[in-house]
Amino acid sequence: MQFDYLIVGAGLFGATIAHEMTKKGKTCLVLDRRAHIGGNVYTENIEDINVHRYGAHIFHTSNKAIWEYINQFAEFNNYINSPIANYKGEIYNLPFNMNTFNKMWGIKTPDEAREIIEIQRLESGITNPKNLEEQALSLAGRDIYEKLIKGYTEKQWGVDCKELPAFIIKRLPFRFIYDNNYFNDRYQGIPIGGYTSIIEKMLLGCEVKVNTDYFSFRQANPTIASRTIFTGAIDEFFAYCYGELEYRSLNFKTEILDTDNFQGNAVVNYTEKEVLYTRIIEHKHFEFGNQKKSVITREYPHSWSRGNEAYYPVNNEKNNVLYEQYKALADCCDSVIFGGRLGNYKYFDMDKTIEAALEVASCL
Ligand code: FAD
Ligand code: UDP
Questions:
Q1: Is 327 within the bounds of a domain?
Q2: In this structure, is residue 309 part of a structural domain?
């Protein structure tokens, strides 16, 4: 054995494990089949702007220990995510708050907003929401659901809102105060200089091979490490023996523009179904940039099939049951530990990813 650990995936989960194990004096080989480290948090410098190659990544957490942990590797700025929604040219503040209700209905007070939502909830006849549509209607009423949720969600997930679990929409704050902060968390920001340098620092002291797929590497090097940490897709690891889990994939289309300010905000969501992308990111605004040019990325969701990148697990009941079958196989495999968004098939944010990795590392 040449290494104590073979870590598959140089994303945030793999890099956290690598950092912790190196600190304990263990040797780690980290592989990634992409051409770079960082996984989905990878940022690259284009026109002196840190571009979030795989979609907007805003670090937010309520866990002080995790905030302090990530701050070892970078200084964070005071960016607060406040996306806006564009519905057929009408602009609304997100998340759903008094600014949104004021624009939607012309009302000014929380009582007025509550009254309208309650009337719309009663009209829809929902008492015990069983799916995303019912959850959204009972929380926000029909106007908000139809203009700001239905189209966006159905593009994002590729199915009718009635077929989606309610928890997806519960991620978003819904408040009766004038507050456009997209998150409720105590700590929030963007690492100054981008995420890639965080991952570089985490991987110091490890051997790293990019452009290297685990499955072919394993064949050629069956005894390279005594244990493997696998952060790729768990169904792929087991050669889809019980069938495929479902994922959503994304296409990112990036353009360099000859303007210093394209949309006036880092994130603009396009909430009608007819516009095929879900959002446009203008990267410079994450770091309050004043470069002469701008870089924007449109995000197009699409269905996943083998060979595409899997970005989001589709955590409905059918897939969760299938995942449990794969997990039972994984639990019998002592030499491999599965982790991260794809290895655990969970919609982890960055803070939860680090938290889960630190928990695994503490037992190794
Ligand atoms: P990944 O980053 O996916 O890393 C896994 C790595 O494993 C990949 O690099 C992959 O190439 C590699 N790999 C897989 N299979 C193999 C193989 N067979 N051989 C070699 N390598 C392999 N979180 C937030 O907190 N805030 C946000 O604003 C936010 N925005 C997001 C926006 C989008 C569009 C997406 C998709 C996610 C977002 N997240 C956000 C979540 C965040 O990206 C994840 O929490 C985090 O990246 C998970 O890290 P990971 O290491 O588990 O997975
Ligand atoms: N959502 C919506 N309208 C929006 C933004 C989000 O309906 O303008 C819904 C959509 O179902 C999405 C979920 O809220 O999947 C969670 O949104 P979030 O921004 O957290 O998604 P992510 O950044 O993880 O893609």
A1: yes
A2: no
What CATH number corresponds to the domain at position 194? 3.40.50.720
CA 168 / ligand 2 centre spacing (Å): 7
Query: pLDDT per residue over 264-273, tens digit each?
Result: 999 999 999 9
Q: Is 129 in the pocket of ligand 1 (CB under 6 A)?
A: no
Return the sign of the alpha-carbon dihedral for residues 51, 205, 344, 210. Answer: positive
How far is it, in rounded angstroms, from Cα 14 to Cα 8? 7
Overall number of domains in the chain: 3
Identify the domain boundary among 279, 303, 327: 303
In the residue annotation, 349 being an active-site residue is answered as yes
> Is residue 175, in this structure, part of any structural domain at all?
no
* Residue pLDDT, tens place only, 160-211: 999 998 888 888 899 999 999 999 999 999 999 999 999 999 999 999 999 9
Say if 176 falls within a structural domain: no
Cβ contacts of 161 within 8 Å, gap of 6 or more: 131, 132, 133, 136, 149, 150, 153, 154
- Report how far ligand 2's centroid is from the alpha carbon of 17 (Å): 29
Cite the beta strand spans of 125-164 per DSSP E.
none
**Can you tell me which atom of ligand 1 is nearest the CA of 213?**
19
| Catalytically annotated residue among 272, 282, 299, 351 | 299
In one letter, which amino acid is 289? G
